[in-house]
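assembly run, all chains below
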Amino acid sequence: MRKTVLVLAVVALLFTGMIATVTAPTVASSNGMVAAVDRYAAEAGAKILEMGGNAIDAAIAVSLALGVVEPYASGIGGEGYAVITMADGSKFAIDFRSTAPMLATYEALTEKGLRIGTITRTPMGICVPGVLAGIREAWLLGATLPFSVLAQPAIDLARNGFLIDQTFSQTTADNYELLLKNAFEFLNEGFVWETGTLYKNPELADTLERIVEEGIDTFYFGSLADEIEEFMIETDGFMRKSDLEIYNAIIREPLHGTYRGYDLFVPHPPVSGPQLLAVLNTLENYNLPAMSWDDPLAIHLIQQALILGDIDRRTYISDPDFHDLPYEGFMSKDYAKTRFMVINPGRVFDQPYASYLGNAYPFQEGATYEEALLAAFAEVASNASDIDESPSTTHFSIVDKDGNAVAWTQTLSSFFGTTTYFKGFFFNNEMGNYASSYRPGDVINLTGGMRPRTTICPTVIMKDGEVRWVVGTPGGARIMSMMVNLVVELIDFNLPVDKAIRLPKFTGMWNDTTLRIEAGYPETTLNFLEKVLGHKLNIYNTYPDLYFGGPNIIAVEENGMMIGAGSIRRGGFASAPEF
Amino acid sequence: MFFVSTGLALKDPGDDLRLEGPFLVTSGGQSPGALQFTVIAKMVNIDYTFERLVKVGEVDISKFKTFVVVVGASGKGLGAAGIDIDVEINRVVELAKLAKANDLKIVICNLEGVSRRGVSSDRIVTALAPFASVYFIKTDANEDGFFTELSKEAGVPLATFDVTVGLKDVLAEFVEKPN
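ok done. output:
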């Protein structure tokens, strides 16, 4: 008996040792790294790396785990986008954005006396979820471990529970009224989940186990799809099994751009990769490396470039399978020169922002900026709608010991999506990202099968073929501002990743004439921005403020050391295997 | 489990303070606490009316016997309501004055614990303190003795509870059962 106990103890120690990880807000390691918004999810990924899995294996585990520990921000009822760069040089972009159900039309809404704006928190606001299809494609592309192994950490978290953090509690409190009405079963016997409470989700554990047993296809073609359809019919939603059956995650090569000699691999439309490149291309014309993070002139130039990029995004970004738009012109260096010419280094824009829309069409055909500007400008109609995007979403970054990298952003759109709760998870409300009512020529009119536009932008940055940073963030309409802030801080200001993530941030958006700026900038900087450059300041006095986003980043040093930094604005963590 | 401590001037709160329905429930700060109060009110069959933003002039206070302000300042909630903290304090204080003039018992409740113990939440509580008949407070909101002090100063009872649902037992103790 004593011998048996001893053997068991040794086995237990070995097992514990096998899955040991180091987890903290900032971690350095050369064994691989995961940075995510939640410590349990980050650890889930690091444990997979520890077991010998690669970055794709870990990404699948983290994606599923995030759906458990942050059910309000993402999950199998949601969607997203991933950029993957493999050590062998291959690169993939997986578009698992949701699509509009075929029954969802403006006519159908009008018949019911509804508009998109009134259905986004109802089952009618659900678009076809893509997360599981994205996971399937990622697994097929390069996973090395069985799906059952990769799903197990999420199943364990759901089955055994975990301690609720402040973000979980606060987000539940912020949405309590809707949850009380639409998702009572999710609440803690009708109350907000409080920080420190043990949260279990056995229903989601059952659902995930079922997906493991029956395969991911059960969600799109099988018995789970049947049950989803039944639920949609009962609750008056638009989605049907036929929508699930025709859904596909799309594999492409990521778009490529450069910034000061670095290579950026970014998402295709309808995701905001071209916008990131367009803004950076504009900024490349300035000598930002000679400035500092708190230089008011740098803040001004970046903010004005962000505004121009955001104005253009609304006209040039949509689902490329439905709209032939000049996004390659939009992200060209020559087009950026024309945008550079629009910015006044000494003063804010003084005309309505819509009047600053650029013409990217000539650049789609390869025109130089001289040719384009010498030619008469063609009139470009602004086919743009006003969408107030949610601050929800989650992003994680992974690099394994071999240098494979994954930048993965997933979302339900708003926190808790539609608040439609089904088998332990929430369905997205991506419907809110289409134009609220039909407008002729609008590039985001609701169309069955079309993917809505989004600001998410998971990105891998390389130098001389080696991964240097894996970057991405939630933050709705502020995502691009956070991304550009970070890239400039990392590349132009040469700041370490943990400092970059901590520095206060600011925004530049097409529909905001103020400069929203997080507390922490020197008084002189703020005064200069206001009094000399003419900015209307909107200072956020709480630091850090999740409004500005919650990036989780990995930096890879030239010696191979990886630095993972979790978001300080959302309690993020980095986790590394110990080996 | 809950605990009742007694204000200095009140010898036996159990005898002297019985809360009768109907209750008028409002938020003080627009956090979700007030809505959670209504969930518990339903559990213990209290006759209540919940008006998140009710103002003097919009309510016939004589219909009620008890006025409950569930305090919790939420920037998001105030923003959604289109009001600032000063407007909110003025609203609940004017209601409390009206309630007191009409002999209603006035309950100040913190249901969300320490997460609603910021400067703004404390301003609301302090402004309402002169009108309080009783405090129902989640224990972790009183770790610094803030509510104990207010309760002692005013000589009114303070009932504390460890978890949100614990308010159910507090209400069961204080609320007069209908005959």
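The longest strand of chain A covers residues 79-85.

Confidence is low (pLDDT under 50) at residues 1-17, 377-381 of chain A.

not gonna interpret more than that til we talk
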